[in-house]
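Write out structure tokens for Probable phosphoketolase.
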Amino acid sequence: MVTTPAAERSISPYGEARSTVQGSPLSTEEARKIHAFWQACNYLAVGMIYLRDNPLLQEPLKPEHIKNRLLGHWGSSPGLSFIYTHCNRLIKKFDLDMIFLAGPGHGAPGVLAPIYLEGTYSEVFSDKSEDTEGLLRFFKQFSFPGGIGSHCTPETPGSIHEGGELGYSVSHAYGTVFDNPDLISVVVVGDGESETGPLATAWHSNKFINPARDGAVLPILHLNGYKINNPTILSRVSHEELEDLFSGYGYKPYFVEGSDPETMHQAMAATLEHCVNEIKAIQQQARSSDVAQRPRFPMIIFRTPKGWTGPQTVDGHKVEGFWRSHQVPLSEMQHNPEHLQQLEAWMRSYKPEELFDQNGKLLAELKDMAPTGTHRMSANPHANGGILRRALKMPNFRDYAIDVPKPGQLEVGNTVPLGKFLRDIMKMNPNNFRVFGPDETTSNKLNAIYEVSKKFWIADYLPEDEDGGELSPDGRVMEMLSEHTLEGWLEGYLLTGRHGFFSTYEAFVHVIDSMFNQHAKWLEICNHLSWREDIASLNLLITSTVWRQDHNGFTHQDPGFLDLVVNKSPSVTRIYLPPDVNSLLSVADHCLRSTNYINVIVSDKQLHFQYMDMDTAIKHCTKGLGIWDWASNDQGTEPDVVMATAGDIPTQEALAATALLRQEFADVKIRFVNVVDLFKLQPDTEHPHGLSDRDFDSLFTTDKPIIFNFHGYPWLIHRLAYRRTNHANLHVRGYKEKGNINTPLELAINNNIDRFSLAMDVIDRVPRLRTTGAHAKEKFKNMQIQCRQYAYEHGIDQPEVINWRWNL
């Protein structure tokens, strides 16, 4: 290896290749074919953006051959297909198991083109055949109504990363190689993408790879200089600063820079080959050693002009190597003959007549440059992970049940038994199940997992780490204080056929709002693609919840993630609010067995009352909601009021309110309904879990007041149930952004979900109690004031509140 002297280094994307690794591994013939394959990719990329007819330019280009709306992005496409083409060479040479992730958001033409040329696209979509007619359909569908988008969407064979939102490509890539020892994931990072926060933390993922058991990620930072219409930061720092940055991240950076195709092909071939050999050497050393060490994996910094090989200027403005090539360099074809001529000259510069035969098929000698079968990155089973997915081996969740002799007497930390359940799942699935969390596994009371697997750690150790640090290079609990990176790892892990579980604090699950959105959209599209096999569901435990954040205060009080989940497609979203241990275990078992969903489980980690034995909990969770007979006294009659709940603390406070009312009014008839599956509140026409109107009316009545005590923001319940017959009588209590350093009951009082507020709500809404209940209402107000005063004086809630039990 020869290193270019620092004085000769430049940040210019132009000229002959400048590379860290020197050499010319390609023969003249091999270089010619690789270049021709890449030229065919570029031709197809331009055709996708512009053409709806005359796909091989077998006649002069005319306005009617051009799409009426020109959508798509050219700028990063040539670089992407250049890398893809060279990866194909190495797959064939070394018999590699490799997949390709394209970080640049709108770089799909540069990925779709080689996928079509290597034949996978035509195999998946038979109407996009490898001939002139199929090529025309392939062109027309791109960014066209009824066709496909301009990202590497789920319809793109070989894609597990869409890139519609920037920042997640590297974390996705690392998730794919956990427990995949032979897989190399090549991830191309756009230089615009490199400016995002999630991408910045994701570079640290290299510190979570154990080369003895995991595969490898080869990041390629593609510096083409510009975003939509601004320079990118990393393209304008010095070569030395860039090298120092990635050395500081723990990589061994290699540079490939320039624009001259002949020398660039040789430089990229030499560099990629060197990096693969380096990866293999790292893995071989780790797998023959008893000592796990953190290696410096290679990465490539690839600098080329934006819009490489496209028009150099348009209307006197610089295009190639400038932001004007980001999207569509030439426009107004129907009204600008000069632009039409320039487009035709651009496309003919790739010499399609030398690339395709007269029937429109890529020449056989060029087709041979691509791998075949499942060696193609577009047909690799890891990129359609459902093919590889195997159901988890599961212990019987009933074995972790809590004995509940009587409802509302025993207090248990809900997530502790769940931790034991997850522990044994991990023990039974040592190679395809991991648990993810941002430094909170112990905090969230799931630390029983450490009995079978510690936290992964392969960086430096200090002596004190042995005292409770729970660190190991063999660990399968993945902790890093970046929810973005953890979510990306988990998604990559699931998308390649494995299983996982993510726990995080409720207030800060919002960090991954956009990632949740993107994954939900991905699953929704996959549900309409018969060739995409089902993957394991993404399971999120939302804990350390709003009603037990009285010690951390206002910043930690936000249950609004549920509102976001409700926005997404009902075919992929599920929300569960189990009120106790046994219902939580039943829900968790169901979620871990499911596929193609995002399951959101809300359960606090602190001590909470237990209400149901396991058999009762299973029935309750299977129904999704139901009447708790033991908390109701309306059997055989119409209720005066329906007391409904969803969530642990809201359920406790509603039960206490029920007890207060029944003590004051012996004849009041209360029906108590608990909701576990939140989507049961929607009509069955809106969500597959929704109740029919008949069943909903049977539970909630058609005309009686409903007091609904909810875990989250109250308007979400109205949003779900607004079409129900009795919605006008539905009164919801929930979090109203009233919080600070409070006692638990004071926090509930501030937001009116407390027992006293609920009891007064019933008095206000049951007609016969509005006047007869005046004395009771005054009593409840006084009790509420007394509780607040006690909290202010003693810093805790009253003993009669802390020691309250259900005794009816």
